[in-house]
Amino acid sequence: MTAGGSVAKTETIHTDNNQLLDEKGGERSEVQRYYEIARMKVRKKRFSEALDALDEVLKANPFHIEALLLRAISLEDIGHLEDSKNLFEKIILNFPDCSSAYREFGRFLLFSENSPATAETQLLRGLTKNPQDAFAHALLAEVYVRTGRHRQALLHLEIASRFRTEEIRYFEVCAKVLARLEKSMEKTKDLQQTLFSHAGNRAERAFFRRAIRAERKGKKERPAIKRYFRKVWF
């Protein structure tokens, strides 16, 4: 079989699988190993191999919710938007109580389809399941600032700031919203400091500052910020 065929891809997965075991130590379930491999492949933007690993997870467990969501996100990243959307809808149908499914579908609708109205619906549904989802509140703030509802945007950023999250994309969204709000509202400075204090380490705090600067200056600095967030968000 050619180098681009499925055998070569499988061999690559097994090689990385062995490396993963060496790094983490000990035995792990086959399903979890393939899921971790998929996350690693996504971080490296090797989406085809990530999807192969996710196929292995879903063969063993078709209801692995994290793998299904990562598959939908990976399809979105490679531009298969219709397939991604269909999968998000299927996930929500099969897992109606999964708050992160509504959040990720809302994010997809907002950023990939530029549809703030439908994004708002999904984000609000997710927040009824998990009112403490800081990232969902930040995304909802992005919806409101895009649609001119600045007071509601500020309110949801304030709510988001009450909860901790390890979701690195949260800080990028907060930076976007804050940069747009500070021109029209005075309360953003204290809120920015609160959100900044939530950054888990020095690197995250530095990039949060850079994200704020990039939004203030426009698009000039955004590519570097996006590369950083793409590198660390999974």
Automatic annotation (TrEMBL):
<feature type="repeat" description="TPR">
    <location>
        <begin position="31"/>
        <end position="64"/>
    </location>
</feature>
<dbReference type="Pfam" id="PF14559">
    <property type="entry name" value="TPR_19"/>
</dbReference>
<feature type="region of interest" description="Disordered">
    <location>
        <begin position="1"/>
        <end position="25"/>
    </location>
</feature>
<protein>
    <submittedName>
        <fullName>Tetratricopeptide repeat-containing protein</fullName>
    </submittedName>
</protein>
<dbReference type="InterPro" id="IPR011990">
    <property type="entry name" value="TPR-like_helical_dom_sf"/>
</dbReference>
<keyword id="KW-0802">TPR repeat</keyword>
<dbReference type="InterPro" id="IPR019734">
    <property type="entry name" value="TPR_rpt"/>
</dbReference>
